[in-house]
C-alpha cells in the first residue's frame, strides 16, 4: 500500500520540516504495509503499520538539511489525539528502524552551554548564559579512555616547530609521559595550580589558565625536596572529572581560557589520534546516552585535522549505545539501543562554522517519540 499524503503528513506533524527528494533527478518514494486504524477512548486514535519504507528523502528546517538514502521502520505504532480539534500526533513507537546513507548538514549553531565552554577555550573571561544544573554533565566514557593524541605545529612565524604526543591511559593523562619534540632540547608539558604549561629551553609558557584552583581531577606538579626549583612530577589529569568540572565552570562564566600564544599555536596545529572510549553514561544538557561495547572494540574515536583553525574530523567506525533520550523542538526522542558508523566534520570559514554528519549502517531498536509536554531529560 502506498500513500504519499499520509506519510508526508506524519513527517510534517512530527518534525515540522520541509519535505522533498534528496536527488532532483529521482523522486522520493514511500510505502506502508499492513496499515491499521483503531479509534480508542478519550479522543485517541491508534495508527499502525507492519512496515514503513522510504528512500531518497530530503528534510529541511531553514539551513539545516537531513538527507536519507533509505529508511525502513518495522512495527510502527502512532497515536493521534482528536480531543482538542484537528488530529495531532502525540506519540510514535517502533520495534526497529534501519537507516543508510544519512547526511545531516548545516551551520553549526551551538547550544548555549556548549557555546560557553567553547568561548572559555577561546578567550578568558567570556560571558556565559545561565548555568546548567551541576548534574547536567556526565562524561562517563572518558573514565576508561585509552589512546594517543598527536599534534604537529609547523609555522615559520612561531618560535619553533614541534611534534607533541599525549598518551591517554585508563582515562588519565600523565604529563610525565607526554612529549614535545623540536629542534634543540625538547620541552616538557605539565599542570600547575595556574594552568597547563610548556617548559621550553627559554622558560615556562602557559597554554591554558585556570580560573581557580584546586580543580577536580587534577594532580598538580610536584617539585623536589628542600624547596628545589626542579620539577620532579609534571602532574596528571583524570579526564572525566577534569572535563566535567571545566564544562560546569564554563557554564558559570568563570574567567579561564587559552592564552593568546596558545590560540595562535592551535590555529596552525595539525592533529591526529585514536581514543578508545569506555562504557558508561554520556550526558549533556538535553541529551543522554549510555555507551556500551568496549570489550568488543566499539566506540573507538579517530581524530584528524590538517589545521585546527580550519576544522576537525571525528570518526567512529562502530558506535554502540543504549538508553538514549534527547529533547528536541519540544519533543522527547529515545531508543533502547543504537548502532551506527559516524563521521562528523566541523568546517571553519572565518567567524562561521558549519558541520557535516554522515551516518551509515544505522540500526535503532525500541525507537520512540513523545510529543507531549515533559520535563528535561533525567539522569539514570
What would you note in describing this structure?
α2 (112-122) crosses α3 (239-251). With 380 residues, the chain is mainly β. The chain is built from four helices and 26 strands. It has helices spanning 4-15, 112-122, 239-251, 260-267; strands at residues 18-21, 29-33, 36-39, 44-61, 64-81, 88-107, 138-139, 146-153, 162-168, 172-174, 179-181, 188-192, 195-200, 203-209, 218-219, 222-223, 231-233, 236-238, 257-258, 269-276, 280-284, 287-291, 300-305, 311-328, 331-349, 352-370. It folds into two domains: 4-107, no CATH class; 112-286 and 294-316, no CATH class. Mean pLDDT is 82; it is low at 1-17 and 120-131.
Features:
mainly beta; single chain; 4 helices; four-stranded antiparallel beta sheet; 17-stranded antiparallel beta sheet; disordered N terminus
How many helices? The count is: 4
Q: Please describe the biggest sheet, giving its number of strands, its sense, and whether it closes into a barrel.
A: 17 strands, antiparallel
Computed structural class: mainly beta
**Count of domain modules:** 2
First-last Cα distance = 41 Å
Determine Rg (CA atoms, Å).
24 Å
> How many runs of DSSP E, i.e. beta strands?
26
- Name the quaternary structure: single chain
Helix amount, in percent?
10-25%
Mean pLDDT: 82
Please state roughly what percent of the residues sit in beta strands, choosing from under 5%, 5-15%, 15-25%, 25-35%, 35-45% or over 45%. over 45%
Shape: elongated
Order of helices and strands: HEEEEEEHEEEEEEEEEEEEHEHEEEEEEE
Task: Give the low-pLDDT segments.
Answer: 1-17, 120-131
Amino acid at each position: 500500500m502506498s500513500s504519499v499524503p499520509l506519510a508526508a503528513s506524519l513527517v510534517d506533524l512530527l518534525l515540522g520540516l520541509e519535505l522533498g527528494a534528496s536527488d532532483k533527478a529521482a523522486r522520493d518514494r514511500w510505502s506502508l504495509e499492513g496499515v491499521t486504524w483503531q479509534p480508542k477512548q478519550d479522543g485517541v486514535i491508534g495508527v499502525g503499520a507492519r512496515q514503513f519504507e522510504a528512500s531518497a528523502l530530503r528534510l529541511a528546517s531553514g539551513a539545516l538539511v537531513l538527507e536519507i538514502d533509505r529508511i525502513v521502520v518495522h512495527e510502527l505504532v502512532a497515536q493521534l489525539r482528536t480531543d482538542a480539534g484537528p488530529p495531532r500526533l502525540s506519540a510514535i513507537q517502533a520495534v526497529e528502524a534501519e537507516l543508510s546513507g544519512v547526511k545531516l548538514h548545516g551551520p553549526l549553531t551551538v547550544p548555549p552551554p556548549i557555546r560557553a565552554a567553547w568561548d572559555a577555550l577561546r578567550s578568558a573571561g567570556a560571558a556565559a548564559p545561565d548555568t546548567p544544573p551541576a548534574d547536567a554533565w556526565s562524561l562517563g566514557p572518558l573514565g576508561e579512555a585509552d589512546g594517543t593524541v598527536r599534534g604537529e605545529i609547523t609555522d615559520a612565524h612561531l618560535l619553533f616547530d614541534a611534534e607533541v604526543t599525549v598518551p591517554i591511559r585508563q582515562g588519565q593523562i600523565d604529563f610525565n609521559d607526554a612529549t614535545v619534540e623540536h629542534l634543540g632540547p625538547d620541552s616538557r608539558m605539565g599542570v600547575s595550580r595556574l594552568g597547563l604549561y610548556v617548559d621550553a629551553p627559554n622558560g615556562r609558557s602557559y597554554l591554558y589558565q585556570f580560573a581557580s584552583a584546586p580543580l577536580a581531577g587534577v594532580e598538580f606538579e610536584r617539585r623536589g625536596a628542600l624547596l628545589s626549583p626542579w620539577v620532579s612530577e609534571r602532574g596528571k589529569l583524570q579526564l572525566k572529572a577534569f572535563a566535567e568540572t571545566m564544562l560546569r565552570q564554563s557554564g558559570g562564566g568563570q574567567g579561564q581560557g587559552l592564552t593568546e600564544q596558545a590560540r595562535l599555536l592551535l590555529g596552525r596545529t595539525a592533529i591526529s589520534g585514536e581514543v578508545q572510549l569506555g562504557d558508561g553514561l554520556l550526558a549533556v544538557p538535553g541529551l543522554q546516552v549510555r555507551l556500551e561495547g568496549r570489550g568488543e572494540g566499539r566506540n573507538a574515536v579517530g581524530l584528524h585535522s590538517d589545521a585546527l583553525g580550519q576544522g576537525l574530523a571525528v570518526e567512529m567506525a562502530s558506535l554502540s549505545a543504549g538508553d538514549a533520550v534527547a529533547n528536541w523542538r519540544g519533543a522527547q526522542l529515545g531508543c533502547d539501543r543504537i548502532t551506527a558508523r559516524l563521521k562528523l566534520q566541523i568546517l571553519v570559514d572565518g567567524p562561521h562554522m558549519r558541520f557535516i554528519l554522515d551516518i551509515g549502517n544505522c540500526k535503532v531498536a525500541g525507537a520512540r517519540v513523545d510529543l507531549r509536554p515533559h520535563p528535561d531529560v533525567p539522569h539514570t
